[in-house]
Amino acid sequence: MNLTINGKSHEHTGNGSVIALLGELGATPEHSAVTVNSNIIFSRDWKTFKLNNGDAVEVLTFVGGG
Amino acid sequence: MDTPYPTTATLPDWLDPTPWLEQSHTAADVRHALGTESPNEETLAALLSPAAAEFLEPMAARAQALTRRHFGRTVQLYVPLYLSSWCSGGCAYCGFASDRQTERHALDYTSVAKELDAIKAMGFEEVLLLTGERCPKADVDYLRDCVRIAAQKFHNVAIEVFPMAEEEYRILAEAGATSVTMYQETYHPETYDLMHRWGPKKDMLNRLEAPARALSGGLRFAGLGALLGLSDPQYDMLALYRHARHLQKTYWQAGLTISFPRIRNEVGGFDAPYPVDEKMLAQIIFAFRICLPDVPLVLSTREGAAFRDGMAGLGISKMSIASKTTVGGYGDAGSEEGQFDVSDARGLHEFCDMLRSKDLEPVFKNWDSTYR
Ligand code: SF4
Q1: Are A66 and B275 in contact (CB < 8 Å)?
Q2: Which tens digits make up the pLDDT trace of B72-83?
Q3: For the whole model, what pTM was predicted?
Q4: Can you give the CATH number for the domain in which A35 is found?
Q5: Is A66 among the domain residues?
């Protein structure tokens, strides 16, 4: 499905869960926060929340170490 | 060597954060803080505590809801213009400190007008004028004239300059200045003394009282902040909150903004003694949104694009963009060395496109100046 990730178009090939998407992007889940269409998706829902074609996803990855 | 400036200070009682630092907080305290409708020091202390690091998502959700309630889906934009890099100050963390071997510049009035025209042509309605410490090349008369030039072109003219007397602030307000930004850098007296190695900035209490003098002198907005990385962030953020609440109570008709500058590299190589990572910075921003729901929170181009994009609308409601930290740089005049490195170097259009893609509306002015 086609998603917009941090403003850029992205073709997602996994099962459409947030956790699958983070894996595909190579993002570290412990250091990430995710919004879908501007709503925060809590990490406890990342396995079950289903993304839809056309969703705008923001993946905010926090860089550690100051 | 004797210094003419007082170097040791004790925080006044109304500012001292220590009573809240002595408590430890549990997950239950954090949950309670997240639900409160009447936040106070206790709320902030809980939300800044290590226990709250596990609650970043609910904090983000609450911060986003409050940001939408108070600011809609808008992000106010501004841009800084450095007028002068002359400085007698000795701030250990600053690229303009007087022991740095960088060439010094000050814009003449013709260059100021040209730079402002270039900024205006980009679409901005708010400009922030900056200098270092008071010096012959950049004194109150110079600033007054620069403010006058800026006020003819911009709706909001903010100044981030040396602390002044109330009468001097009045002169700038009459020339058209609307806001003053005065970061305390750190509220921790011993650290403050250590970081400000020489110069008038050694006088901590003089700086602390400057925003109040500015508001008494007729400025309408005061911007506060502490430079994250200098001292224990919990100490500094609690004191910053108390400072803001104190000004809100005393100058209820004035507006406040709060910024979250984090130490970045600059010429002279300074390492932050208390580095703050992005996760902690996000926690701090969410905590302030929850505790000061209607105060604009500012994030500058010191931070990288990805972090700024994430925080826009999630707590942050005001941002700079397309910034130069060199003297001038928008028109044809420009120096080489900046005060600090810009991390988000995008242009205005690219940035506005990003905001719109997130359903956020860039706003260039938030009020009309009907008299000044
Ligand atoms: S922070 Fe300001 S006062 Fe201190 S050295 Fe830099 S320009 Fe000068």
Answers
A1: yes
A2: 999 999 999 999
A3: 0.91
A4: 3.10.20.30
A5: no
